[in-house]
What does this fold into?
Amino acid sequence: MKMTQVRNATAVLESGGKTVLIDPMLSAKGAMEAFPSNTGDTARNPLVDLAVPLADLLSPDIVVVTHTHTDHWDSAAASLLPRDVPVLVQHAADAELITNDGFTDVRILDEPITIDGLAFNRTEGRHGTHAALEAVPSLGQVMGVVVSHPEEPAVYFAGDTVLTEDVRAALEQHTPDVVVLNTGGAVLATGEEEFPTTGPILMEAQDVFEVYQLAPQARVVAVHMEALNHCPVTRADVRSLAADRGISESVLVPEDGDVLNF
It folds into this structure.
């Protein structure tokens, strides 16, 4: 099994002879507006170009969209990916949006789905604290996914979530061999005087250690960093924490374009 870290949460998973594109954000550098944030960075998103040739991303066997925020499903993905590729989504609203983009095989992952020997199991998450979701309803619902094949390591993409009981339950239930965490610690400005920022709406560096403790059998892969203006956690932050806790051999922090073999 092989995973290519493309950029942000976008990854290509090769397992069981199939190619799975996860959370495609395919736009050119600076094509989207900055997210409202208190990080002081107002640069347009994405902050960096694709490190993988765009053409190499446009013929997947399966696409997984954990939610349809623009850093996980953008206009470039909607316009460039083949219309007949199976797209797995979390609920009817996302299915309708992507179907309206012209895709003809959009499937809601409310039950486990197997495609050509690859099994996809939905997991639950929460895109921030309950207070954050109340202040910014557009954060909406998110999912993770466990991708498995009888002859390959199982991979758990936790998605845009903080560390919740649902995440802990997924780690216990699925005992994945690889856990991919979005650890950018993204923060949004709310515009409210009493609650000016959401606080982290993703995991942060310290969550990597707790996940390692919950799933010591797994390699932990930290992504969703250094590509968006509202994600203050850096790769160096995660590497430093892993070194301090003595878990560097179990924690991978790929650069964009890196290929990880498991």
